[in-house]
Write a structure and sequence with these properties.
It holds the Pfam family DUF1091. By secondary structure, the protein is mainly β. It has a single domain, classed as Ganglioside M2 Activator Protein, Chain: A, CATH 2.70.220. The chain is 15% helix and 38% strand. The strands form two sheets. A five-stranded antiparallel β-sheet has the order 1-8-7-4-5. Strand 4 and strand 5 form a beta hairpin.
Length: 197
Amino acid sequence: MKPKTLGAWIIIFLCCLPNWKLEAEAKNNFELQTDNFTCSSEDVNSRIIKEYRCGISKGSKRRTWRMEFMLVQPVADHDFFMKIILPRRRPLTDFVLLNVTTDGCQLLANRNQVPLMRLGRNIMERFSNFPKQCPFEANVTYYIRGFRLDLNLLPAVDMETPVHVELSYRSKQQGLRWISGYLKASVQRISDKKHPK
């Protein structure tokens, strides 16, 4: 999807979504609760990836998610894919908030990206040791650890909803998704007990 097209869809979503609020104070009423995070690889013969692990923290409150991987060989040219879905009850179809594939090297360097992807890359820097330019090196444990999205960094939203996120890294040379992650979470209203008085 071209950046201009993606930007237009995001604007349409923001304008049409019921109960969307622009007031900054609405952000503090909601949090993203992680339910599960798993990962897989199409590289069954370990031509690219040597090992990987994914999961969530054990605490029942304020769970975080993690992804770790080590590569057999350096990976330069690759694509990054992300899809964000807001599931809805049948007979309604799921709402696809974002469905984008972008050049992974440009994403690492945070260049030529749509604003939402650049924001995500900036947030991720606090939780990962990903390089700021290609390639991903071999025999280095790359990680995202303790990640928990702060909704205060995003436009205000006044809704409770499940959220499903799929992300993956795909080698352009070998055509394999060497790692894919699957996040299940939900935007939940913060109870009055959690609000400081």
